[in-house]
Every structure is written in C-alpha cells, then in structure tokens.
C-alpha cells in the first residue's frame, strides 16, 4: 500500500517552501550540504529531483491543526484547505528536527544510503554532517520563535522536551548494541523516546498552533504517539524485509548492523529453541555474510518477531484512531488522519 502523503499537494508545497526558506539562511557551505540531504541538489550543488522523504510528520502537524481549527465555532469548513496554514511554521520545525536526527543517526549507524543515494556523511564527511545536523536543529527553534503564534512558548517547550527524548532514545539504542540481551519493554521504551515522541509532538504542535483546547491537544498528541510507535514497528520490519527499491536502504540493513530492533528483540526473548541460534549470530564479532543474514531473518520470523511487530503495529494504529473520537475534532480531518495512519502502517504488507 502506498503512503498517502503525496496526495496532499498544497500542504507538501507549503512545507517544502518553508524548508527551503529556512535552509537558505544557513552559511553557503552548510546550505549546500542541507540541500543535498533534502534531495534538492546533487553532490555538486546542481538542481536535483531526488526524494525529500515522505514528509509524514509535518503533514500530521497540518492535519492536526485542521482537525482543531475546523471544529472551532466560527470555522468555515468549506475552506478546510486553508485551516492548516497557521501551523506551517510548526510543521517546518518538526521536519527540521526530524532531519537533524536523520543526519546524525546515519553517522552513528554508519549507514551509507538514504533515500536511494549516499548519505550526507558519506559524501561530505562526518564533521560537516555533524555540523549541518546541528544547524538544522537550531533552525527549527528559529522558525518557531519567529512564527508570531501565541503558542510559541508552549510549542518551544514541547519541542525542546521532545529533542531530549530523542537523545535519550538514541543513547539507549546505541547501548543496546553493547549488550547480549535487551528486554522487549526496554526496546519499546527506546522506540517511544526515539520515534513516538516526535510524532506525538508533531500532532500536538498542530493542535497548539490552531488554538486547541487542552483536551484536543492531549487527544492529538496521544494519536501521534501511538502512530509513532506503530511506525517504528513497521520501520523495523522494513529494516529486515523491506525492498531496497522502496526503502532506499540495503536489504537486511538492520541485521547487518546487529540492531536490536523490536522484531529482533521479540524473537530473542521468545523462548523458542531457535532464539539461541539467533543470539549466537548476534553475538559474533565479524560482519555477517549473506547466508548468515538470510538465516537471521528466517530465525526472527520463526521465533515470532515478525508477527509480533505486525500485530503491535495494527493494534496501535487502531487504538490511535479510536482516541480521535474525543475532543470535538473536525470529522473530515479525523478521517484524513486515520487514513494516513492506516496507509503508513500498511506499507509493510
């Protein structure tokens, strides 16, 4: 199933314009590298039509804003296409934070491919990649500060707390690599901090910038958080069984890095006899060869890791959609949020 973000043309154009304006403020060298990362230019700085990603998080921000603004007493629901515009700065800030984390994650994981081409650090070196990631982080808070919204203070505090959670999750993720065993509860907590927190922040910021009530902000933040955890389950499945033509990453990429992802952790803790063989493969020192990678994937599936993540993703998505019934949100936007969630999770099967 295809993720539906491409059907939101006006929203995607607004997000892209905001990102380009922000990146243009950077020093020339940093702007060039950031433009490459976003797919706007090639390695030499020439215009490119490479992928900029799905823009899922900023789109969630705009749809959350629409859900709140369209439910306001004097809102013109016929003009729903414009209800999200006050939240564009928040959406741009969310996408800047997301991409700051991607640039740094690729360095940490030594991933050489993203969106079907070499990663930033692979092209420009680790030092420049670190600095550009830092620049994107700073830009996010500049965009929020200059938005003129009454929700700037609350939004800035929310985004800062989310960045702390991202860092906490990344620290846990890297430390898992040093351990033979990781409990599933620990792995879920890591995913909540590293992935779910930013999606929850994205929807909450949209609600805040649209003037949402405390109940509306909470309902939309919970929706984004649950969807974020479901998204991580799906992403971890794609990290093992995803088609490189779709994911832009090498097949078995997470297994090559011996990442203790959600399906792998579930498999290792399954108690099945085959889990011992998987544990031995993960405990080895040298790189896994192709036969070992295939076997590791088979073992994760045999031990129930694949089915566990799929079932968790479906359950989380369903519960996220149910939660949108609270808060008196615009039904049209609720349907769009639910549809986007279903298409995002459904991309793995």
How is this structure best summarized?
The protein has 349 residues and is an all-alpha fold.
Describe the fold and architecture.
This protein is mainly α and 349 residues long. It has one domain: Farnesyl Diphosphate Synthase (Orthogonal Bundle). 68% of the residues lie in helices and 1% in strands. It is built from 16 helices and two strands. Strands 1-2 form a two-stranded antiparallel ribbon. Helix 1 packs across helix 4, helix 3 packs antiparallel against helix 4 (88-109) and helix 4 packs antiparallel against helix 8 (184-209).
Q: Could you list some keywords that capture this structure?
A:
Isoprenoid_synthase_dom_sf; about 350 residues; metal-binding; about 70% helix; two-stranded antiparallel sheet; transferase; Polyprenyl_synt_CS; about 0% strand; mainly alpha; Farnesyl Diphosphate Synthase; Polyprenyl synthetase family protein; globular
């Amino acid at each position: 199933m295809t993720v539906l973000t491409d059907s939101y043309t006006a929203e995607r154009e607004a997000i892209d314009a905001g990102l380009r304006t922000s990146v243009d403020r950077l020093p020339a060298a940093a702007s060039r590298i950031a433009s490459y990362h976003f797919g706007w230019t090639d390695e030499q700085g020439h215009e490119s039509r490479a992928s900029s990603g799905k823009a899922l998080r900023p789109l969630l921000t705009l749809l959350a804003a629409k859900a709140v603004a369209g439910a306001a007493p004097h809102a013109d629901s016929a003009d729903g296409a414009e209800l999200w515009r006050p939240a564009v700065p928040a959406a741009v800030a969310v996408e800047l934070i997301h991409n700051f984390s991607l640039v740094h994650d690729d360095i940490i994981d030594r991933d050489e491919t993203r969106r079907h081409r070499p990663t930033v650090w692979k092209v420009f070196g680790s030092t420049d990649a670190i600095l550009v990631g830092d620049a994107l982080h700073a830009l996010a808070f500049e965009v929020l500060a200059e938005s003129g919204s009454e929700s700037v203070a609350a939004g800035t505090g929310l985004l800062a707390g989310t960045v702390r959670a991202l860092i906490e999750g990344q620290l846990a993720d890297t430390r898992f690599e040093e351990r033979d065993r990781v409990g599933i509860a620990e792995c879920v907590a890591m995913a909540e901090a590293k992935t779910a927190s930013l999606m929850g922040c994205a929807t909450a910021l949209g609600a805040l910038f649209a003037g949402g009530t405390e109940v509306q902000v909470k309902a939309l933040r919970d929706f984004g958080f649950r969807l974020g955890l479901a998204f991580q389950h799906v992403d971890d499945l794609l990290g093992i069984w995803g088609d490189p033509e779709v994911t832009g990453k090498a097949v078995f990429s997470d297994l090559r890095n011996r990442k203790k992802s959600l399906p792998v952790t579930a498999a290792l803790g399954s108690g099945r006899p085959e889990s011992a063989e998987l544990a031995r493969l993960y405990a080895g020192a040298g790189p896994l060869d192709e036969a070992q990678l295939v076997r590791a994937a088979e073992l994760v599936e045999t031990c129930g890791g694949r089915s566990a993540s799929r079932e968790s993703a479906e359950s989380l998505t369903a519960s996220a959609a149910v939660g949108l019934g609270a808060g008196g949100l615009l039904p049209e936007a609720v349907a769009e949020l639910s549809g986007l969630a279903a298409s995002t999770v459904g991309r793995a099967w």
